[in-house]
Amino acid sequence: MNESQIHQESKYFRKLQEYLSEFVYGGIDGAVTTFAVVAGGFGADLDAGIIIILGFANLFADGFSMSVGAYLSAKSSKENFKKHEAIEYWEIENLPEVEREEIVEIYKAKGFKGELLKQVVDQITSNKKLWVAEMMKDELNLMQESKSPFKIGLATFISFLSVGFIPLLVYLWTYFNPSEINIFLWTSILTGIAFIIIGWLKSIVNQTSEFKSIAETVALGVLAAVVAYYVGDILENFFLK
User: What angle do CA 34, 172, 19 make, to 5 degrees?
Assistant: First the structure.
């Protein structure tokens, strides 16, 4: 393997890492909501075919909704950044002394003073692009999002579907290949493994303890399933008996 191939593979790996957070949170939501539907259906003693229908309806409807929400949120952030960036360019063109004084105050607060402060301010205000970038970052606390809103939405949708499909896997398999296995037990085991993997990935994204991240993710899934199960059980007793 030559150097160019190594750099190319590294580039693709970094691109995948960019959207890891979207994959993680889309996967968590997909697994939690679909498992909750399955648990609710099991609690209500619904037929496996009905649980599959409800599960897939939730999987695609919620997945689409979440991905569109992620796309629109990212797009809105980009548009908001561009709007304020245009305002800063206008202010630099029309109110240069006011904007220069703001740079002075920003760097005074960072500890610069005297001749060094003047040199830094002169350097920044000599380049409009740099000047605006400093104002966006230090005055408005806005950072430009480098990720594509479309790819953010797509990563969210793919992760929601792929991880959210796991709670339906055993139900779907046994529907076409009838078996005496405990379907809900095996569904719970597979979903639990999915929660552990997603929790581990979440610890990478958030740079937190692996154990804590996994425990939080599993606990969230269990809590959602327990609530859904008892809601299904209560409603089944109320409406179907």
Answer: 45
Could you tell me how far CA 10 lies from the centroid of its own chain?
A: 23
Backbone φ, ψ for residue 181 (5° rounding): -65, 160
CB distance 148 to 15 below 8 Å: no
Structure confidence by residue, pLDDT tens digits, 71-105: 999 999 999 999 999 999 999 999 999 999 999 99
SS (H, E, C) the chain: CCHHHHHHHHHHHHHHHHCHHHHHHHHHHHHHHHHHHHHHHHHCCCCHHHHHHHHHHHHHHHHHHHHHHHHHHHHHHHHHHHHHHHHHHHHHHHCHHHHHHHHHHHHHHCCCCHHHHHHHHHHHHCCHHHHHHHHHHHHCCCCCCCCCHHHHHHHHHHHHHHHHCHHHHHHHHHHHCCCCCCHHHHHHHHHHHHHHHHHHHHHHHHCCCHHHHHHHHHHHHHHHHHHHHHHHHHHHHHHCC
State the maximum Cα–Cα separation within the chain, in Å, rounded to a whole number. Answer: 84
Q: What angle do CA 180, 181, 185 make, to 5 degrees?
A: 145
pTM here? Answer: 0.80
